Amino acid sequence: MNARRIARVRQVAVAMVRESDVRNVMIRVVVGLLVMAVALGVLLVPTPAEAVDTGAGTAARTTARNVVHVVTPGHGKIDIQQAEHYLVPEGETREADLYIWAGSLEIAGTLDGDLIAGFQDGKITGTVTQDVNCFAQTMRITGVVGDDVRLGCETLFVDGHIGGDLIVAAKDVQISETAVIDGDVIIASATASIDGTIGGRARIMTGFLDLDGTIAGNAEITTDGGIRLGQNAHVGGDLFYEGPVGPDLPDGVVDGEVTFRRVIQEDIDFDFDFLGGASILFHFLGFIAALVAGTIIVALTKDHATRTAEIIRTKPLKSLGIGFVTYICMPIVLLVLLVFILTIPLMFVVGLTYVIALYIAKFYVSIWLGNLILGRGGRKDVSPIPSMLLGLTIVYLVTAIPFIGTLVGVVIIFFGLGALMQRKETRLDAAFEPAPVVSNGLPDEFPGTGTGA
């Protein structure tokens, strides 16, 4: 083996296994993640004074884990909490918009603001002056809500007063005879029972409806199992009903016109492609997440992002080749590290770094694409964020195309990964350059071996 070949093999080997180079890459990734974590922690971790202040009751009543108070001009106080059990005691008033994730929730006093919550069991026996927006297993409203109520839950029971609209998706909805809802009602449920008073219109889609209350406005009702009208049932406007059998309407139950459309199970068409729809939804959610993550990452590492995108512009074929080799070889390296017990921790670290690199690779390709469209090629004095946002939008539109989009997405990863591998921190760029001529100090020819005359 000649000297040049030996030198080149040694150069590649040293570049790939040099501990300091791997450490430099890992340090950059970890520091970036720590900066993001600290930024979020400043918003989410309370000071001791805030935690004591928001408790307002005893530890037995409210066990809060994370508490934040933020005063925003024109919007009042925002109270963000996470708790096993959250209670606003009877007779107490808390002036704040409450954002909470809890095991159980009870508003027995007064919450002067909005309630935005996720919990298992909830009760409003007191007063919420503004909107209620919740995801829950069970929700019981026996008190007063000043404005709209929007719910996603398993069971909803209303026995109080709602000053605005009620919008709910649930398994079972029960509106008792003492309940009053001033606004409109939209219900999507398996079963529904309405014995109270609805001051506006009603749109109800349910398996079976038991109506023994009052709907002051128009009513649009769709059921699979039918409708039962009690003695106190009354619709003040028009009634449009879709169901298997026409309703038996006594005189005076509906003040307006009645329209009936017979719908049986066989008439319902379920041609919706659930898998296709879910794929589009997840792709859109991934795009939104990428916009947020990409903006944060590029904002924190503007110089790094600009230089990496510049490598794609100046060395496209080399970036594609190195990215392809890295993409193929890295799983093999991880498998080798897994075989040896002592290197398993290193395998997890390298694997995490590799996964992060695969995810962020598209951001650098997006910057290059955005620069190309905006005519920013080679400029380093401008922010890369607008280019990234434009390029990322195009990338996600193209990758949404079936089959072709998948291939394009893989090629994008090759380009971005290859550019990352060529950054000076990895030292792999030099490994793919021609090796310099190595001189051992000896003459190329010795006396007597020449071919001269």
Plain-language structure description:
This protein has 453 residues and is of the alpha/beta class. It has two domains: 85-265, no CATH class; 276-432, no CATH class. It has nine helices and 25 strands. It has helices at 3-17, 19-44, 48-55, 274-300, 302-314, 316-339, 344-374, 385-399, 404-421; strands at 64-72, 76-88, 93-94, 97-107, 110-111, 115-118, 121-124, 127-128, 132-135, 138-141, 144-145, 149-152, 155-158, 161-162, 166-175, 180-181, 185-194, 197-198, 202-211, 214-215, 219-223, 227-229, 234-235, 239-243, 258-262. Strands 3-5-8-11-14-16-18-20-23 form a nine-stranded parallel β-sheet, with no helix packed on it. A hairpin with a 3-residue loop joins strand 1 and strand 2 (76-88). Helix 7 (344-374) packs across helix 9. It starts with a helix and ends in a 32-residue tail after the last helix. Mean pLDDT is 78; it is low at 4-75 and 427-433.
Layout of secondary structure:
Blueprint: H1 3-17, H2 19-44, H3 48-55, E1 64-72, E2 76-88, E3 93-94, E4 97-107, E5 110-111, E6 115-118, E7 121-124, E8 127-128, E9 132-135, E10 138-141, E11 144-145, E12 149-152, E13 155-158, E14 161-162, E15 166-175, E16 180-181, E17 185-194, E18 197-198, E19 202-211, E20 214-215, E21 219-223, E22 227-229, E23 234-235, E24 239-243, E25 258-262, H4 274-300, H5 302-314, H6 316-339, H7 344-374, H8 385-399, H9 404-421
Parallel strand pairs: 2-4, 3-5, 4-6, 4-7, 5-8, 6-9, 7-10, 8-11, 9-12, 10-13, 11-14, 12-15, 13-15, 14-16, 15-17, 16-18, 17-19, 18-20, 19-21, 19-22, 20-23, 21-24, 24-25
Antiparallel strand pairs: 1-2
Helix pairs in contact: 4-8, 5-7, 5-9, 6-7, 6-9, 7-8, 7-9, 8-9
